[in-house]
Every structure is written in C-alpha cells, then in structure tokens.
C-alpha cells in the first residue's frame, strides 16, 4: 500500500521506510529537499527505499521516481534544468542523449548547435557565431530530436552539416523553419573567406605584380582561376557568373539526394557584391 508523506526527515523514526538515512542538512523541514542542480523536490509517494515519487518544485512540477539514496545525495535530475551552456535542456519525452552508453547523433548535433551560439570560449575562436541564436523551441532537446528524425539524411562519403543560412540567406537563427541538413561539400560552397580577401568583394583579390584584379573560386577544394580584370567590379561580375553557374551544377548533381527546399535554394542563389 502506498503511503503518502510530506517530509522524510520528520518521518525518520519510521524504521520500515528507511527514511532515517535522509540527513537534516538537506531538508528545510517543510518536506522539501535540495538537489545538486539547485532545485527543491517534494516527496509525494513513498513505496520503498528505491521507489519514491518526488515532485520538482518549479513551474513544471515534474514528478520522477527515484530512491532515498539519490534524494540523500541531491542526485534527482530535473529534465527542465538548462544544463547545456545555461540554455539547453533535455525535456521530457522519448529521446535520450545516449544509447548503449554512446551519445546519439541527434544529441551531438543539438549540443554542437547550442555551443556555437552560447559558448563564449567557442565564439572567441569562431566570432562569426556571436550574433547567432537558437529558437526557444529548440532549447528543448526533445523538440530538436523529433525534427532531426524527420529531416536527417545521409549521402555516401559525405559529412552532414546542420545549416541555418542557405534556405534564408543571412539568417542567424537556428529553427525548424530555417535549418536544413547539407552535405559538407555543398556547405563549403558558401564559405566567404573574409580574412583572406581583405576589403575586396567576394571572389576578388588584387594582383600587385600585374596591377589587375583577379577572380578566383574554389572547386572541390582546389582554387580555380577565372581571369584578370582592370577593375574590381568586372572581376566580381565574372566571379558571380561562374560561381552561380557552378552552384547550379552541384545542385543538379545532387538533386535526387537532397531535400527539395535545399535544391530550390541552390538554384535561386544570388551572389551579391557585399556578401
């Protein structure tokens, strides 16, 4: 028979329950017990030493089965605790972070996404992510994992990337409507290389020897020379023409293997001089 209790500490003289193992220091005498994550839990059902139902005292009021030992050590986990860079949390649902002690693929993508947007040490070496954010819905891992299951795919011999700004150029928000999985070679088509090109438009450098402007682009990890031009604008226009043509070529190569929204975005991609 289930016995309802309000405070294990007050019930410490009940020898059958084993609750005398709860120390006074973790109880506030109102039936609440501190956890290592900084929450209080309230015992709502006691069945035996290893079967205790507690309610986490926050806005979610989540109830979880645990044991006296975990309560004693403060090891009751709150699935709504923002444990990943003070933003992401596991949530309640079917998706786990590990299966057979190994991190799941969806969890790796999710944690990496949160890191890029909210880890200051990461952003010191990758400042391009400083203005980026993750939508509130995806702070909950369960929501991201569900979207992952419906949208993830693989292409042989390619590494898949989670992209936020191909479907919507210039976008800085990771969300279900703006993100798509992209093979690494397609994702690399949109690398700007801002530091190497200096103040010139994308695809353009100045050749001091000839005093002309050089247009180049990357094709399969190799630099392809497009031509030399008397002015910067002509060099950019040559680059724009060749690069957009090449993006369409790659899009058609992978048309049957990538999502339609990604294919459509590649086919309409417009390179601008201030990219």
Give descriptors for this structure.
four-stranded antiparallel sheet
Structure write-up:
By secondary structure, this protein is an alpha+beta fold. The protein has a domain at 1-81. Helix content is 27%, strand content 21%. The chain contains eight helices and 13 strands. Residues 1-6 and 8-29 have low confidence and may be disordered.
Quick structural gist:
Helix content is 27%, strand content 21%. With 275 residues, the protein is α+β, with helices and mostly antiparallel strands.
Secondary structure: elements and pairs:
Elements: E1 32-34, E2 40-48, E3 51-56, E4 63-66, H1 68-73, E5 98-99, E6 102-103, H2 105-118, H3 120-125, E7 133-134, H4 141-151, E8 160-163, E9 173-174, E10 180-183, H5 184-187, H6 194-197, E11 204-207, E12 212-219, E13 222-229, H7 232-253, H8 260-267
- The SSE order reads EEEEHEEHHEHEEEHHEEEHH
Work out the radius of gyration: 27 Å
How many H/I helices? 8
Tell me the distance between the termini: 69 Å
**Largest sheet, order of strands side by side?**
1-2-3-4
Shape: elongated
Query: Biggest β-sheet: count, sense, barrel?
Result: 4 strands, antiparallel
Based on helices, strands and strand pairing, what is the structural class?
alpha+beta
What is the helical fraction, as a range of percent?
A: 25-40%
Stretches with pLDDT under 50, minimum 5 residues: 1-6, 8-29
> How many E-type strands?
13
Mean pLDDT: 89
How much of the residues is beta strand, in percent?
15-25%
């Amino acid at each position: 028979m289930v016995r309802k209790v309000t405070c294990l500490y007050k019930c410490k003289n009940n020898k059958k329950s084993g609750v005398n193992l709860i120390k006074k220091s973790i109880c506030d005498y109102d039936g609440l017990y501190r956890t290592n994550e900084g929450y209080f839990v309230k015992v709502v059902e006691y069945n035996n030493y290893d079967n205790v139902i507690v309610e986490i005292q926050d806005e979610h009021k989540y109830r979880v089965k645990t044991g006296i030992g975990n309560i004693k050590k403060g090891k009751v986990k709150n699935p709504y605790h923002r444990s990943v860079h003070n933003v992401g949390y596991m949530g309640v649902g079917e998706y786990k972070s590990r299966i057979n002690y190994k991190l799941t693929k969806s969890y790796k993508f999710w944690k990496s996404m949160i890191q890029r947007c909210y880890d200051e040490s990461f952003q010191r070496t990758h400042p391009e992510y400083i203005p980026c954010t993750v939508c509130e819905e995806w702070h909950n891992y369960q929501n991201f994992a569900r979207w992952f299951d419906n949208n993830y795919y693989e292409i042989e011999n390619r590494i898949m990337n989670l992209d936020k700004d191909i479907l919507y150029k210039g976008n800085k928000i990771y969300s279900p409507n703006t993100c798509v999985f992209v093979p690494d070679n397609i994702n690399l088509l949109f690398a700007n290389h801002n530091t190497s090109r200096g103040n010139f438009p994308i695809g353009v450098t100045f050749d001091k020897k000839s005093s002309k402007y050089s247009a180049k682009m990357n094709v399969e990890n190799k630099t392809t020379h497009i031509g030399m031009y008397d002015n910067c604008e002509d060099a950019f226009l040559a680059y724009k023409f060749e690069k957009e043509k090449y993006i369409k070529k790659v899009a058609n190569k992978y048309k049957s293997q990538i999502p339609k929204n990604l294919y459509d975005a590649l086919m309409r991609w417009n390179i601008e001089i201030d990219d």
